[in-house]
């Protein structure tokens, strides 16, 4: 189970598996012991014969343990292992045993709105939905320290880069690429470092699960599409903590980026948690028409645009109409900051808070087919047409 720091992996597993043998590799004594002799895991297992599940938290800290886990799994009375990590870099690059297909991969994301007893859209746009942050009395302070935690405990301690100063400047510069097509050369110019250095930094950021890319949707494309992926910081609150603020930064600009990021992290969690073969994309033609998110797969086909505005005009729906012309099978949705559910030219305009609260894994992204609507009242707004 992989997920960024603070998404609640350890807390959730302790709650769900209270009888397991829980090995936390962030504990210094246990870490030193198993790092020096990974095979000591055999001794710990034999010392707890009644435990049928063994949890190893932050497995990336000692990748060599995977070889021992694999050996234990070969035994007839093998326990179940649950391995968590907040970085895939050392596991993927260390040449270690990756369990030969014996493991199921799962990911944990920041909270979805539907998981919370009450959802505050405005607050979520400011502080994000990391459990670590929501559980704190000082959300702003935790967010400010969050990236420093990663830089100190992951980047610096693991020697992922030789120049921490350059990497810190890169984090600020790359925050301006959030929600945009990734231009490595432009980021390199902002950081005043070589392009290949920035490319390596972006890879580190993705390996640490702090950022991810969305590929372009090209299935049966009728128009020429762009080639570069879009980049997103994984949480709206973390984005705000990374992005420099000053007199030239307009609040509506960062609010729009935070809104798009909040929707992105919800849709990404939905695709990860749902038991269907759906994936998340974006769509942009060389002529400039762009739709923020495309979900395509067994779960359905949706085109979703976000707009940080209280009202929607027909001109705002131009890109969605273009996409629907090419893909009439898709349900096209505009998410906005207003309070009414509308249908304009056959396209749905949905209050973004209502949409996020209604979004649940293994349920349709939007209930209803083209030209139909599910009028079950939501917990957020009264539906109006």
Would you mind describing this structure in some detail?
Among the domains are: about 10-100, 3-Layer(aba) Sandwich (Oxidized Rhodanese, domain 1); about 115-220 and about 225-240, Winged helix-like DNA-binding domain superfamily/Winged helix DNA-binding domain (Arc Repressor Mutant, subunit A). About 40% of the residues lie in helices and about 15% in strands. The longest helix is centred in the last third of the chain and has 23 residues, at about 250-275. The protein has helices at about 10-15, 30-35, 40-45, 65-75, 90-95, 120-125, 130-135, 140-155, 165-175, 185-190, 195-205, 235-240, 250-275, 320-325, 350-360; strands at about 20-25, 55, 80-85, 180, 210-215, 230-235, 280-285, 290-295, 300-305, 330-335, 340-345, 345-350. It has a 6-stranded mixed β-sheet, with helices on both faces. Strands 1-2-3 form a 3-stranded parallel β-sheet, covered by helices on one side. By secondary structure, it is α/β, with parallel strands linked by helices. The protein contains 15 helices and 12 strands. Mean pLDDT is about 90; it is low at about 370-385. α6 packs across α12 (about 235-240), α9 crosses α10 (about 185-190) and α12 (about 235-240) runs antiparallel to α13.
